[in-house]
Amino acid sequence: MATPKLTAGLDIGSTAIRVAVAQGTGGGHLQVIGLAEVPAEGISRGLVTSIEDAVSAISSCLEKAERLTGTPVEHAWIGINGSHILAQSSHGVIAVAKPNGEIGEDDITRVVEAAQAVATPPNYEILHVLPRSFTVDSQPGIKDPIGMTGVRLEVEAQIIEGQSAQIKNLTKCVYRTGIDIDDLVLAVLACGEVILSKRQRELGVAVINLGGATTSLLVCEEGDPLHVAVLPVGAGHITNDIAIGLRTSIDVAEKLKVDYGYAVAAEVGKREDVDLAEISDEEGVVSRRQVAEIIEARLEEIFELVDRELIKIERSGKLPAGIVLTGGGAKLPGILEVAKRSFRLPATLGYPLEVLSPLERVNDPAFSTALGLVRWGMAQEGGPVGFKLSQLPSMAGIFARLKERFKSIIP
Ligand SMILES: Nc1ncnc2c1ncn2[C@@H]1O[C@H](COP(=O)(O)OP(=O)(O)OP(=O)(O)O)[C@@H](O)[C@H]1O
Ligand SMILES: [Mg+2]
After folding, report:
1. What are the structural domain ranges in the chain?
2. Per residue in 158-211, pLDDT tens?
3. Distance 214 CA to ligand 1 centre (A)
4. Nearby residues of 397 by Cβ (< 8 Å), 6 or more positions away
5. 284 CA to centre of ligand 1 in angstroms
6. What number does the ligand 1 atom closest to the CA of 15 have?
7. How confident is the model at residue 368 (pLDDT cuts 50, 70, 90)?
8. Which tens digits make up the pLDDT trace of 101-129?
9. What DSSP string describes 108-145?
10. Is it true that domain 86-162 has CATH number 3.30.1490.110?
11. Which residue out of 17, 48, 258, 373 has the highest number of ligand 1 atoms within 8 Å of its CB and is therefore the one to mutate?
């Protein structure tokens, strides 16, 4: 019997490393057969800080996935994250090749290549080129120019770049575990792929992935990504604030946040106390109201930083489909209220769309990136899922180029 083709997504986070494995699609749905998670080692703020520790953590996560699915993971789509990620807009122009002026796929590839000729900072690599819209002669706002006629083709694109050293460290870690890399994908871009509906992307929507050490943002409009940003602050900072504010250990602070935390302080009774002796070896009583106040303050600060990104692109308070929250930090009760207030927009929790799985954890917001990577991968491999952008020919081959360049450093 032929072994079914598996697609795997590997999300290397600051708090946890996660793998999702899917076995093709059924009726357009991802059939997820394995989800594995291990605590992250050797990763901090989305960056590799110890290759050895990261390799052993990634390996144990892959082994866990193998035990679940009964098949080894031989290659995976890898999420890349970290505040080194940069996004800039770019413009490309070419003359249409065919004498009769009919625009073909080659023209698209060439114009997107032309858009890549932006000034990349030294020691940065282009990870993605996301075409937003095309202009044929002087007609702007064209989504798909193939088959149209013109002499001049232009594209407006978002160029996403990452620091070469970080990309090298990440690829090195993955290769050392013995698996092959299908491609590197910006984590939040992959995440959007599985939790956003087509309608939300058309209307205008922002995904906020609240991770342990980073908060990443993806804004989509008219179906395509408009902006991405990765901020160096996450839900782990809430834990640190609780530890400092209430003078507890980090472990106790994390427990207070996860088990007793609430994001809207005014809704927590003033006399609700937590006896530390009941949940830890520490002594003392802390007020739940105070825990909530600390959470709320930090959350508002994180959302304010995100809103500054929305202000930059003139979308603050202006996204009709609102905010979709995901990532482990989104599990904080009351977070939607704070998001609605901070962004003056509707806010919902993101759940993976069109995913079939007997595994309960598919709906865990912490797994959205790993699942998104699988969806992205399937779209690239020609499956019937995913949004058009991830299937553009111009996107493929970027990693192939990087891979050539990094081969020398990969043992
Ligand atoms: N039930 C919960 N309630 C509140 N917070 C939670 C809950 N579960 C997890 N978290 C928080 O979510 C954060 C981790 O989120 P996630 O696993 O998405 O991060 P990560 O992907 O490892 O990190 P990053 O993306 O920043 O590299 C931690 O700060 C953790 O405390
Ligand atoms: Mg993450």
Report:
1. 86-162, 197-351
2. 999 999 999 999 999 999 999 999 999 999 999 999 999 999 999 999 999 999
3. 10
4. none
5. 26
6. 22
7. very high
8. 999 999 999 999 999 988 888 999 999 99
9. HHHHHHHHT-S-PPTTEEEEEEEEEEEEETTEEEES--
10. yes
11. 258
